[in-house]
Amino acid sequence: MPRVTLETLPDYARYLIAAAEDAALFPVTRKVRLPALELTVHLEPGALAEALGHAFVEAGDDQPGLPACRIFVGHPGIGGMPEPARWGDAHFTEHGFAQRLAGAGLRGHYFHDLDFWQVYDPQRRIGAQLMRAADAFPPWETGSPLRAFLHWEYGARGMRLAHAGTLGADGSGVLLAGAGGAGKSGTVVAGLLNGLDSVGDDYVLVDLSSSVIARPLFSVLKQDPKGFARLGLKDRLGSDMPLNWQGKHAFHIGDIASRPIPGTLDIVALMVPHIGAGGTSSIMPMSRRDAMIALAPSGIAQMPGERESGFRFFSDLTRLLPCYRLSLGTDPGEIAGTIADFLARGAS
Amino acid sequence: MPQANVYAVASKDIVFESFDGEAVVLDLASGKYFGFSDSGSRVWQALCSGVGAQALAGSIAGAAATGATGLDAFIAQLVELGLLVPSDGTAQPLPDELAAELAAANEPLNVSVHDDLADLIIVDPIHEVEEPLGWPAVKQAS
Fold it and tell me: Within 13 A of A202's CA, how many CA atoms are on the CB side?
């Protein structure tokens, strides 16, 4: 099995992309229309192909002349695709790996447990994902497939995938930021169940070019069994669906939303939820410093590469928005009402 | 006494931004974040600009007035965290505006470390590296 070092990394990344382009046949081609991007994926039937069919929120047809990117998802069972290499240096750091590739105009990620490679050429908008076998991918890939490639492509155009939830009404919305367990996903579900809109939980596309705009990419929502029951989802969606790799129920925005997913939300505030001590919810101002520390780490650490640009992006975002601490009550309807009232007042 | 009078940002991997006068620093290599109090932010800003520690010690007042010992300890902490290194550069004077902001600060000198990666790995183990292990290692939920 070949070994790749920091020295040979850019050459290996280019080799993988060339091998994928030259491979004999990828049986399946999936096209997905995303905000400002037409994504074409060449792969074979299986869980990843199925995920591409249901994990995304497809954008409307009103985007003429979209930039197109192509991703090849392969393994040695596809003619012409090589065995994935192993990392051969004594040391590995995500940052050093990303820096080395960025210096060559490339992006990439390596998950050593599976020798799982993702490499991308943002100039040509072509990427390759190489696995040991058709099912040798990390378990989170089906929830938000190819997110690293989207992160690199949108990042090259000044946009960013934010690890944040969203809720909105009448086109205006809030970003919900914070680490796992803070109540972010439960808040998104509570809002959707009570008439608010969302353009996503976990990862949304954020654009700062005019104002702060959030757009949907992935439709998946997740709740652990306790939250699933507390929010009444057991009765609504049933509980016979298998739990995902995190032990959570995975479902989709469309399963619980009262309206179609909006194409955009004009973000008017950044909120950091936490489980409150009292029975009712409240929204109190918080410092931008603390909001930035709640927002940025997960958005940067969960996405390979682009750390400094992410830090600058989230800094700009935080400075553009008023920031609040959202203390969560216990009743989902009351939580949603608190946010709806906040939005109706004009985020003041 | 601090080990040096003048300091510099430790490396190009140390990046920082200011939010309403409060600094947030990110170590790109480790992914660690550092949040500074208002007085700590001004001291950080001054030290990064080459202001000498001795000049700072003579100017600190208000909430940050912990004396030279407190300032020395704060600087030593920033060096230990890998954010600053001693420099042989020429000490710059403390700008009047920064001195006024330091005097008006409400909080004592403080820097808090935010290493949320362990939490993130629980959510989604796109791994971070434990340098001593030499390979990317998925952190285990505690």
Answer: 22
> In A, which residues are within 8 Å of B136 by CB distance?
92, 94, 110-112
Residue B3: pLDDT band with limits 50, 70, 90? low
Within 8 A of A288 by CB-CB distance, chain B residues are 19-20, 22
ipTM above 0.90, yes or no: no
Specify the amino acid at residue A20: A
Count Cβ atoms below 10 Å from residue A331 Cβ, excluding itself. 15
**pLDDT for residue A267 is more than 60:** yes
Contacts from A16-21 at CB under 8 Å and sequence distance 24+?
A: A16/A82, A16/A117, A16/A119, A16/A128, A16/A130, A17/A72, A17/A119, A17/A121, A17/A124, A17/A126, A17/A127, A17/A128, A19/A80, A19/A81, A19/A82, A19/A128, A20/A72, A20/A74, A20/A81, A20/A128, A20/A130, A21/A72, A21/A126
At A57-111, the pLDDT tens digits run 999 877 778 899 999 999 998 888 999 999 887 678 888 899 999 999 999 999 9
Chain B nearest CA to A299, separation (Å): 10
Joined tokens for residue A22: 């030259």
Tell me the average pLDDT of chain B: 78
Could A289 and B22 be called an inter-chain contact, meaning their C-beta atoms sit closer than 8 Å? Answer: yes
Mean pLDDT value of segment A178-189: 86
**Would you kindly state where each structural domain of chain A is located, as residue ranges?**
3-157, 161-344
Give pTM, 2 decimals.
0.89
A161-344 CATH choice from 3.30.2430, 2.60.40, 1.10.10, 3.40.50: 3.40.50
